Amino acid sequence: MADYLSIDIGGTFIKYALLDDQKHLHGHQQVKTKENIDQAILKQVEAIISAVSNETAINGVGISTAGIVDREKGEIIFAGPTIRDYKGTAFKAHLSRTFPFPISVENDVNAALIGELWQGAAQGENDVFCITLGTGIGGAYYHDGIMDGTHHQANSVGYLLYDPETKTNYEMRASTTALNRMIEKEFGKGVSTKEVFEKARLGEEPYIALIEAWSKEVARGLAQIILLVDPKCILIGGGISRQGDFLLNHIQKQLTTYLPTDFLKTEIKIAQLYNDASLFGAVHPFFKGGNIEC
């Protein structure tokens, strides 16, 4: 029995795991992402595939990655500052010359949404916008297929709401990085996001006020998505989504501030697969019989 190797490339860590034909992930590993000098990340991925394939029979490799991806070419066509010199990284062309099995490459937020559609909170949905709150903010939209835009640049929601006075955009104010900055400014170093949420759940001030202030920034961007796309469902992912309904309630409470009266009809849901969502989504193209068009 052969497995599929799924690799998720982020600015901080590269995570990988195997998916068997019963759709069970196993053998999770992660390594720190190298500074991308002289295509170091491509070389890291090649080394991971080589090491795993020496121990396990592999049918295919799915790669989920930060950056805008041309999935036909399997190449990075745009990348922000999180990973230096990443544009032009040709994963599929390079790896296909080295390994005999097929290689699939997908943007990480698209992969997360595909994973949730396939095995998570969005099963059975056909009009879903996924937003991931993490180091930055990413977006993906599915409506009878993943909607990329003419230049593969659609749903780059982290760049929304640019303020020329503060020179900040949506992700600079509403990502978990921004939340951590708010926490450090208010409480000093050494106070974790988890601690702040725990105290806010107990009704303690000023922890509640801080979560509400940050949730307001998150809601501001979600309102733009609703006004432009009007999706049936918005799925909130990223590690912070583990805060579940408590987080969801704070965001929903703020949403109506930025929308016309009685305009909020989109269902807001929390993702279920957390850090595994992109790992599932990256290898989905190898499984036949699914109805998710990419």
Describe this structure in words.
Helices cover 35% and strands 22% of the residues. The longest helix is centred in the C-terminal third of the chain and has 23 residues, at 207-229. It starts with a strand and ends in an 11-residue tail after the last helix. The relative contact order is 0.15. Strand 1 and strand 2 (13-19) form a beta hairpin. The protein has a 5-stranded mixed beta sheet, with helices on both faces. The chain is built from 9 helices and 11 strands. It has 294 residues and is an alpha/beta fold.
Compact summary:
With 294 residues, this protein is α/β, with parallel strands linked by helices. It has nine helices and eleven strands. The strands form three sheets. It has a five-stranded mixed β-sheet, with helices on both faces.
